[in-house]
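Q: What residues go here?
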């Protein structure tokens, strides 16, 4: 149900007209009981001036700005004191309603005292049908109204005769008037609740949307986690495969038939056994030969690799100083050198040295 509440003017108090969902219409005077009822207020024709003009339809802001310019030129009242609203009635020229800012604020404040926040505020003349030519008159909510295609005002004998002149003036039948009122309530041709007086929208929480967003977020998190788990599993399987391949390759380096318990440790043991203790046979001998080549006049006469990793070498030299030079060269290479007793015979100096890892 929707209640049309006619605002008071002069000696005329509140009146109301209730439109039931089944089309039934009831009316009365005073402030009605409005529990759980949508309310549309009707501004008295005496307080609202109506104009019609061609206005841009690209945006409400542009249309309102253009309407304010037109009203400022046609009104003696400062535009800052006027509230201008633009409607969309049919095609062609659009209705423009002008009302005092104080009157509009007073209506809404008075309604708020009664706990009413109207869905819309419609100028009373726009409740009459728009004629194609001439004028029509009717009584809505106890107020006599007159309108044409481009005017709308309160029906007063002298004013109406002056404005209408010789133009045809028809009276709207009750049934047609009820249908027009119902249509105007369903789709207001002009709502004064615009700009600073626009109805505030209550922010509601759409719990269904929140639940959908929560499910969507949970799905995204689950998908992200699944991607990470797949990546971790892939890396784990790849590491296992590489480890198995390395172990298989390591087995080929062990003695045939050897029981495998720890490939890394067993390969290290075999490598140590192959190269010998200390730095190993190959490394130690290579260093000794390098030192001998770096000391001209010396030569090796014997070579014996010991189980403890040291190397006993026999050295022959052309002069007394050369064994000492050889010893220093080996020590410079990082070895510990122990020299035995060198003897001189037949123009040669011979003796032994023990080369070991420090």
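A:
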């Amino acid at each position: 149900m929707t209640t049309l509440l006619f605002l008071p003017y002069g000696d005329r108090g509140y009146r109301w007209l209730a439109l039931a969902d089944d089309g039934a219409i009831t009316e009365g005077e005073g402030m009605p009981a409005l529990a759980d009822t949508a309310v549309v207020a009707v501004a008295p024709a005496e307080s609202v001036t109506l104009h019609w003009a061609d206005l841009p339809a690209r945006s409400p802001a542009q249309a309102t700005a253009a309407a304010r310019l037109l009203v400022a030129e046609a009104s003696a009242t400062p535009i800052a004191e006027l509230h201008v609203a633009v409607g969309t009635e049919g095609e062609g020229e659009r209705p423009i309603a002008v009302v005092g800012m104080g009157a509009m604020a007073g209506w809404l404040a008075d309604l708020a005292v009664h706990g009413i926040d109207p869905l819309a505020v419609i100028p009373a003349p726009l409740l009459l049908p728009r004629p194609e030519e001439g004028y029509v008159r009717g009584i809505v909510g106890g107020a006599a109204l007159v309108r044409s295609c481009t005017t709308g005002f309160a029906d007063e004998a002298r004013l109406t005769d002056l404005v209408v002149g010789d133009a045809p003036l028809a009276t709207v039948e009750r049934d047609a008037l009820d249908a027009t009122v119902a249509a105007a309530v369903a789709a207001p041709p002009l709502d004064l609740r615009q700009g600073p007086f626009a109805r505030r929208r209550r922010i509601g929480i759409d719990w269904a949307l929140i639940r959908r967003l929560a499910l969507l977020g949970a799905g995204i998190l689950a998908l992200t986690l699944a991607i990470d788990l797949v990546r971790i599993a892939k890396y784990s399987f790849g590491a296992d495969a590489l480890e198995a391949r390395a172990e298989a390759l390591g087995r080929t380096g062990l003695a045939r038939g050897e029981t495998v318990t720890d490939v890394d440790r067993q390969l290290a043991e075999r490598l140590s056994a192959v190269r010998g203790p200390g730095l190993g046979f190959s490394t130690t001998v290579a260093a000794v030969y390098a030192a001998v080549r770096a000391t001209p006049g010396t030569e090796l006469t014997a070579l014996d690799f010991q189980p403890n990793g040291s190397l006993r070498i026999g050295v022959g030299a052309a002069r007394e100083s050369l064994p000492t030079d050889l010893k220093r060269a080996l020590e410079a290479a990082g070895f510990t050198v122990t020299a035995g007793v060198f003897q001189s015979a037949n123009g040669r100096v011979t003796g032994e040295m023990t080369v070991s890892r420090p």
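A: Context that may help when evaluating the design: DSSP finds eight helices and 17 strands in the chain. The chain has a mean pLDDT of 86.
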